[in-house]
Write a structure and sequence with these properties.
The protein is α/β, with parallel strands linked by helices. It has 19 helices and 15 strands. An eight-stranded parallel beta sheet has the order 4-13-12-11-10-7-6-5. A three-stranded antiparallel beta sheet has the order 1-14-15. α14 links the parallel β12 and β13.
Length: about 550
């Protein structure tokens, strides 16, 4: 008796034989011969292959299963996705970026789609006496007192390397940053020709040069740090700040490898490596091995750059390691000009799923730890804090500043401004919009002048929305936002000010002889065992 699993193959073969016979007699219907013959060949091939059991059991039919699995993300995104399901970004989040980037209407009718009685819902308390703010160009000074301080926007482009992004994407981002007067982080892939203006008379967008463990753009042949090569680029007028990358939110504690086949001449040129040879980013730095060594390295880079603001970026892991850095600040007297805190919810590139989902502290906890530590050692006024991790809207910025940051960075937000549709194919080289690919034909679709305008518009319109939030709260600058301005629902019938939910230290709480009994557990447990001369704890 014929097994129903093979019925499709048998029918295809039968139709092929019948249609072939009729076509020979009638000299017509050859299209049916070709179609049924092709299906029969596919079915026989499925039956004979050994890699996929489902194809052997269901020849022809099982191919439909693989096809629908292949287009499953598109089906979910275009037909089934909820407007508010943020996995990783909701349709509403993407839409607000597209609308602001294109200068389209960004207002929403008929009330919120959010459940305001769901635990975790947050809002900003408004004032009966709103303020009037005359500009949306909110700025802070980083490196005050240094030879070359920098006046930074409170909203900027986060670290994304050339190589991860296409040449056209980098050019559009940098030109957009120039038009909008905000900064563009190079990512650890260093300063490429596409970060620099094609016309030497043009200054280009402000750059933050990120120095990772591979020391790309400032390395010797053996991969060690090169002072000479660093100085040559760090002193460029376009470079405004220097950032040492310790770790990133997407895959903290994990190195990287760009296979030689993907190391093009242009990528090799930017990074200072050999074309066609595997490009390795070690998991740790070779220029230092302790908190004191890190700060000495930061101080060296600041000196070599001519006094430009210099700091570091990290995702928070073991709390005693950052406590050790804070103790090293007290011991050496060396302070970074800034620290960028990268939450584990951040990340534009590909990473192992275990790292993406389960390594590193989320932005709220990471930012709180860094802010509280600096307050506790009386250094908060000397060190500015940047923050990154799923920051898209003006409320995201306001919330993050209220928690303790001085400015915010966004990567995926500006990718959306470039036209990214969240296809999540960044790691395949087949980005449909030309943003995250090195394929010349694909990135050609990204028209630089138009996308640069969109980048600038997204920045400007987001800050205009932030201006309106600040006015509604009765404030005059985002720096005035505090935890008491934020309210969070903790249950269907209870809300609390964030200032009462999250622990905040008082100035000097961590200094010798003070350390009050109310210290949060993380400080009470790990501050005493942190070391300035080692990233290891005493226990």
């Amino acid at each position: 008796m014929l097994n129903a699993r093979y019925l499709t193959l048998v029918l295809s073969g039968f139709v092929f034989l019948l249609s072939f016979s009729l076509a020979l007699i009638l000299d017509r219907g050859w299209w049916l011969v070709l179609a049924s013959g092709a299906l029969t060949i596919v079915g026989i091939s499925d039956l004979r292959q050994t890699k996929r059991s489902i194809l052997r059991n269901y020849p022809i039919l099982a191919n439909f299963r693989f096809f629908f699995e292949y287009i499953r993300p598109e089906i979910r995104q275009y037909f089934l996705e909820e407007d508010t399901a943020a996995n990783p970004f909701s349709r509403n989040q993407r839409s607000i970026v597209y609308q602001r980037a294109k200068q389209e209407l960004d207002k929403r009718p008929f009330g919120t789609q959010l459940d305001v009685y769901e635990s975790g819902y947050e809002w900003i308390n408004h004032s009966i006496s709103p303020s009037t703010v005359h500009t949306h160009d909110f700025r802070i000074t980083i490196g005050e007192g240094r030879a070359q301080p920098y006046s930074a926007s409170v909203f900027n482009i986060s670290a994304m390397s050339f190589g991860a992004l296409s040449a056209n994407a980098i050019r559009a981002l940098n030109q957009g940053a120039q038009k909008g007067g905000f900064m563009h982080d190079t990512g650890e892939g260093s300063i490429s020709r596409y970060h620099r203006p094609e016309d030497s008379k043009d200054a280009g967008g402000d750059l933050v040069w990120e120095i990772g463990s591979g020391y790309f753009g400032c390395r010797n042949a053996d991969g060690s740090f090169s002072e000479e090569r660093f100085t040559a680029s760090a002193t460029l007028p376009q470079v405004k700040m220097i950032e040492v990358k310790l770790s990133q939110g997407a895959k903290p504690g994990h190195g990287g490898l760009l296979p030689g086949a993907k190391v093009t001449f242009e990528i090799a040129e930017a990074r200072g490596v050999e074309p066609g040879v595997d490009c390795v980013s070690p998991s740790g730095h070779s220029a230092f091995s302790s908190p004191e060594g890190l700060l000495q390295f930061v101080d060296k880079l600041r000196t070599l750059s001519g006094g430009k603001p210099t700091g570091f970026k990290l995702a928070i892991g073991h709390p005693w390691e950052f406590f050790g850095i804070a103790k090293a600040m007290l011991k050496t007297g060396i302070t970074p000009d800034f620290i960028v805190v990268d939450g584990s919810e951040g990340g534009t590139g590909a990473a192992p799923v275990e790292f993406t989902d389960h390594v590193g502290a989320p932005l709220q906890e990471a930012l709180l730890l860094v802010h509280n530590t600096l307050v506790g050692v009386n250094l908060r006024d000397k060190v500015k804090i940047g923050a990154s991790g799923k920051i898209i809207t003006a409320f995201d910025i306001a919330r993050t500043l209220a928690l303790g940051a001085d400015w915010c960075n966004s990567a995926r937000g500006f990718m959306f401004a470039l036209g990214c549709i969240q296809s999540q194919s960044c790691h395949t080289g087949k980005c449909p919009t030309g943003v995250a690919t090195q394929d010349p034909s694909r990135q050609r679709a990204l028209f630089i002048p138009d996308k640069a305008e969109r980048v600038a518009h997204f920045h400007q319109n987001t800050l205009k929305a932030l201006q309106e939030l600040i006015e509604a709260a009765g404030l005059h600058h985002p720096s005035e936002l505090k935890p008491r301005h934020l309210v969070r629902r903790v249950s269907p019938n209870q809300v609390k000010l964030v200032s009462s939910l999250l622990p905040y230290l008082e100035p000097g709480d961590l200094l010798d002889g003070k350390q009050p009994a109310y210290l949060p557990e993380v400080f009470a447990t790990y501050w005493p065992v942190a070391q300035a001369d080692s990233f290891h704890c005493l226990q």
